[in-house]
Specification:
This protein is α/β, with parallel strands linked by helices and about 550 residues long. The protein has three domains: about 5-175, Rossmann fold (3-Layer(aba) Sandwich); about 190-330, TPP-binding domain (Rossmann fold); about 360-540, Rossmann fold. The strands form four sheets. Strands 11-10-9-12-13-14-15 form a seven-stranded mixed beta sheet, sandwiched between helices. The protein has a six-stranded parallel beta sheet with strand order 3-2-4-5-7-6, sandwiched between helices. A six-stranded parallel beta sheet has the order 17-16-18-19-21-20, sandwiched between helices.
Length: about 550
């Protein structure tokens, strides 16, 4: 029977899941893992500028490719990356965290080696990660093959990060080259009961509606979701994180849920419905405008990745894909009256001398978008600026609305571009967030990638300014950089522009369409300190109001 080393087996199995690029940094304890990546003709090593950025890049890669992988050394490297993995865990982004550790003999003898404590604890970091991954494994001479198969089975079922630590010597241990992955399946009885309960509730409803969200993408069920939507003929809306999963021109799409602030049609439709089928929703404050949905998802039908809740009864081991397929087969289409909704900003005309503001930036950016673009919007004010926009066909819109770690978007967009080199990637970020991870733009240039990066320079943490009691508190200031000069520090092809007026921004976007064919485009734009999109200001005002207390 064919034998293969532990490291080779892990890399091969991950490549079978579609992972071609492995992000991370080298360290003397992970060399054998890196050699396995380099020796596999189907996989590439992508060295990043630090472990945190590498984790964000793997997150962005997984959002586009389906799965991502991060490799670091023991202790110092893995702890540097833990925030990135926590964000992936929060938002159901399947990234495997692979760490190389000292050899087994040193672990057993509790030898004091570098990257550990004076009283060594070789399992301390695994315990730390156990709080932000679905499962962990620490490989040894007895469990290596079984543990790899187990964690990868969990990885593909739960669509969340997993963690594996591999000692240097165990990397080279030979094991059988036979895949032991368990393909996730629904429990037949639970699926049958859930489907029957769903159909009874839906088919008896007078005005059912559908609410989709980002977990439809995470659990790779977009095709099944759209087939169910089409068969049902029900009105359909999405939450902000799921913006783009339904095309705006679909005649029964009532737009993204923006509560009473914008697109009132979505709110009215959900209020009117006597049976909302929620699919893949993340019910958090910023995704629902401080819990403004006019119903509780679990009171009706709440379809999640691996379970479904119907009238507050939970059916375990029901995979999203499977129940959507069954519902499509059993659904009774209803030709309901759907109100017409106008989605998107009105076109704007540039004023030569008018200073840039959100009222021009986002409508003009809407015109700039093209079908199949991949868009990354940094956390803060920007996602709510983009949310009302009319997205062209197959635009992949990405935010980190739940975890909200500033700096995520720059390296995440790099990972996404590595996953889809044939698509145009656009990053919109604020200068405060960009400063945390800006060095990763050097990797765009090293890899010969051509993203379009738009950096808002508004002299501070604007989202914190509008959340603060005093917008001009000292802690909301940002160190001043000349961002237009930043890319010139790195080697590679780049076109740089600055824009302070509407005309300059309009001209920069026009030129970027040309320059992006051959090089990275980096545009610094300037606005007033307190300039924010109207929708952002409305959600902040609502967030700042206390929740009503129960009597």
């Amino acid at each position: 029977m064919k034998k293969i080393t532990v490291a080779q087996y892990l890399i091969k199995e991950l490549n079978n899941l579609g992972i071609e690029d492995f992000f991370g940094l080298p360290g003397d304890y992970n060399f054998n893992i890196l050699y396995a990546i380099g020796d596999n003709q189907n996989t590439n090593w992508v060295g990043c500028t630090n472990e945190l950025n590498a984790g964000y890049a793997a997150d962005g890669y997984a959002r586009i490719k389906g799965y991502g992988a991060l490799v670091t050394t023991f202790g110092v490297g893995e702890l540097s990356a833990i925030n990135a993995i926590a964000g992936s865990f929060a938002e159901n982004i399947p990234v495997i965290k692979i760490v190389g550790t000292p050899a087994t003999k040193f672990i057993k003898e509790k030898t004091v080696l570098h990257h550990n404590f004076q009283n060594p604890d070789y399992y301390a970091f695994e315990r730390a990660f156990s709080n932000v991954v679905e499962t962990t494994a620490f490989l040894d001479e007895n469990n290596a093959k079984a543990e790899i198969d187990r964690i990868l089975s969990v990885f593909i079922k739960k669509n969340r990060p997993v963690y594996v630590a591999i000692p240097e010597d165990i990397c080279l241990l030979e094991i059988e080259d036979i895949s032991g992955l368990e393909i996730p399946k629904s429990d037949p009885d639970s699926l049958k009961l859930a489907t029957e309960h769903c159909l009874k509730l839906i088919n008896n409803a007078e005005y059912p509606a559908i609410l989709g969200d980002v977990l439809v993408k995470r659990f790779k069920a977009k095709t099944e979701f759209l087939s169910f939507v089409e068969k049902s003929q029900f009105p359909v809306s999405t939450l902000i994180m799921g913006n783009g999963i339904v095309e705006v021109d679909y005649p029964r799409f009532v737009g993204t849920f923006l509560t009473q602030f914008e697109n009132i049609t979505s709110l009215d439709t959900l209020k009117k419905s006597d049976c909302v089928v929620s699919v893949g929703t993340i019910i958090c404050d910023l995704n629902t405008f401080k819990f403004s949905l006019p119903f509780q998802t679990t009171d009706f039908i709440d379809i999640q990745g691996t379970y479904t809740i119907i009238e507050n009864r939970k059916y375990e081991n029901v995979l999203m894909k499977d129940i959507l397929i069954e519902l499509k087969l059993g659904i009774e289409p209803k030709c309901l009256e759907i109100p017409k909704v106008n989605i998107g900003f009105k076109n704007v005309t540039a004023d030569d001398n008018k200073m840039l503001s959100s009222s021009y930036i986002y409508p003009r950016f809407q015109e700039f978008l093209k079908p199949n673009d991949i868009l990354f919007a940094e956390t803060g004010i920007i996602p709510y600026g983009v949310a009302p926009a009319r997205l062209p066909e197959n635009v992949d819109f990405n935010t980190q609305t739940l975890w909200g770690s500033i700096g995520w978007a720059t390296p995440a967009s790099f990972g996404a571009q590595m996953a889809a080199k044939d698509r145009r990637v656009i990053l919109i970020t604020g200068e405060g967030s960009h400063q945390l991870t800006a060095q990763e733009i050097s990797n765009f240039m090293k890899q010969g990638l051509n993203p379009i990066i738009i950096v808002f320079n508004n002299l501070g943490y604007t989202i914190e300014r509008i959340l603060s009691n005093d917008p001009f508190d000292f802690f909301n200031e940002v160190i001043s950089w000349d961002y237009s000069k930043l890319p010139q520090v790195f080697e590679g092809q780049v076109w740089v522009a600055q824009a302070r007026t509407e005309r300059e921004f309009n001209d920069a976007l026009k030129q970027a369409e040309i320059e992006q064919q051959t090089k990275m485009c980096y545009i610094e734009i300037f606005t007033e300190k307190m300039d924010v999109p109207e929708l952002t200001q409305k959600i902040v005002d609502k967030i700042k109001r206390p929740l009503p207390t129960s009597q």
